[in-house]
Design goal:
Elements (H helix, E strand, L loop, with lengths): L8 E4 L6 E2 L1 H14 L7 H17 L5 H13 L5 H17 L2 E2 L3 H10 L3 E6 L3 H10 L8 E4 L10 H11 L6 E5 L2 H10 L3 E5 L11 E3 L15
Parallel strand pairs: 1-4, 1-6, 4-5, 6-7, 7-8
Antiparallel strand pairs: 2-3
Helix pairs in contact: 1-2, 1-4, 2-3, 3-4
Length: 231
């Protein structure tokens, strides 16, 4: 897969692609809910839906990063907390969430295969820069990636075409010379294709292939053709 494409850059998503943050999120949400007397089978999914909704509002810059955290707490607990109180309450969830981060076993090998093929390796993540670099540093990924671009540095996050234009500009490659690899059909696949890039949907949860999009259930499936050298 991808070995037939004349690529110069491989661009990776972070959460759900290189780092497993969903398991950490679910476990933290269950414990956080229990702290507030909420025990139900759908707690983790409810938190995920609420988090996704407000994080998308942040990605379109309707609200700030800190505001989306406050809104998640208010909606989940059903109370109109002040920003200060909501931020403090969110902190209890955040501590558990960060403690649960894990790196996928196939992450470092695929980054190294891309580099060995002569590709520039980049990260384009819909995350806040400080938090995302904590993940990269904890799992020694900083040295495995050439360029890191977080949506907090941009006018909007994926799938906004400005996010893709920014990373291509930073890499100095054309859209058809780059591939975006990630777990989100909307942000990583549809956004990339609309911007002219190649894309791979990483279906770690066994999702069915979508159309003619490149599809993989593990990063171990990805192989890259040697990049063409320019004088």
């Amino acid at each position: 897969m991808l070995a037939h494409l004349p690529l110069r850059a491989a661009i990776f998503d972070l959460d759900g692609t290189l780092i497993d943050q969903r398991v950490a999120q679910d476990a933290a949400a269950v414990a956080f809910a229990a702290d507030h007397g909420i025990v139900a089978d759908d707690v983790a999914e409810r938190w995920h839906v609420i988090a996704h909704r407000h994080y998308r509002r942040y990605q379109t810059r309707e609200i700030t990063f800190e505001q989306q955290r406050c809104e998640r707490v208010r909606e989940f607990l059903g109370r109109d907390f002040s920003d200060a109180d909501a931020t403090e309450i969110f902190g209890a969830y955040l501590t558990r969430y960060e403690a649960g981060w894990q790196i996928y076993a196939d992450a470092v090998p695929v980054l190294r295969r891309a580099r060995e093929a002569g590709l520039v390796v980049a990260l384009l993540t819909n995350g806040q820069q400080t938090q995302q670099f904590r993940k990269l540093e904890r799992f020694a990924l900083v040295s495995e990636i050439d360029v890191v671009l977080c949506s907090s540095e941009l006018p909007a996050g994926k799938p906004d075409p400005r996010a893709y234009a920014a990373v291509l500009d930073r890499l100095g490659v054309a859209a058809d010379e780059a591939v975006m690899i990630g777990d989100s059909i909307e942000a990583d696949v549809q956004g990339a294709l609309a911007a002219g890039l190649h894309a791979v949907h990483l279906a770690r949860l066994g999702e069915e292939p979508v159309g003619h999009v490149h599809h993989a259930v593990s990063l171990d499936e990805l192989r890259f053709a040697p990049a063409e050298r320019t004088a």
